[in-house]
Amino acid sequence: MKFTYYGQSCFLIEADGKKFLFDPFITHNPLAKDIDITKIEADYILVSHGHGDHVADLVEIAKQTGAEVIAMVEVAKWIKEQGVDKVTDINFGTQDLGFGKLRTVWAVHSSSNPDGSYGGNPAGFVLNLSGKQIYFAGDTALTVEMKLLAELHNLDYAILPIGGHYTMDVDDAVIASNYIDCDKIIGVHYNTFPPISIDMDDAIAKFQRENKTLLLPKIGETIIL
């Protein structure tokens, strides 16, 4: 299984012969200026919520790739209005989709679409891919709801926001990793803007003190999970 980071909360997972793109925000991110979105391939695009730093490149990439877009009902409606044909709307719970079972879970944040319309509830996802269980928290604060994931899943990796200000910071993400009982964390949603800047070495050390691994791949870097 491959994980490629594109900055902010955008990444691509390649597993089971499919490519899963999450929260596409690239061309408006100066840190991702070397990423050519015309070369990105995707079979599925999963959207955690409607904020611009998660959907700015969604429509262009969806039309370019012909990927199936998966999003909460209200965000899915907005996406369809942009002329994207392959859209699956979801809500909290489990869904049987073309690649298998998806669990859509609670996230503590807000959501609106780029045109200001109502974006419904933000969400996170748990996917079963290549025999591994992966949790993407989306944009969220720390919440005790996360403890339920430890009862429902044996998570191999968790992709957590760590930048603070709008989401969990590093300290809260460490607590979250204990709540979900996951030792391998990939950090996202940090360093893109001044309010979410972090000390990366300090962040890695805080997870190490809990006997956990924090992975912080560079933008454009691919790692093997």
From TrEMBL:
UniProt KW keywords: Hydrolase
Pfam families (alphabetical): Lactamase_B_3
Keyword flag tRNA processing: no
Domain Metallo-beta-lactamase: start-end pairs: 7-189
Keyword set includes Hydrolase: yes
Alphabetized Gene3D superfamilies for the sequence: Ribonuclease Z/Hydroxyacylglutathione hydrolase-like
A GO molecular-function annotation: hydrolase activity
Protein family (similarity comment): Belongs to the UPF0173 family.
PANTHER family according to UniProt: UPF0173 METAL-DEPENDENT HYDROLASE MJ1163, UPF0173 METAL-DEPENDENT HYDROLASE MJ1163-RELATED
Protein name: UPF0173 metal-dependent hydrolase ACFOWA_12415
Species: Pedobacter lithocola
Lineage: Bacteria, Pseudomonadati, Bacteroidota, Sphingobacteriia, Sphingobacteriales
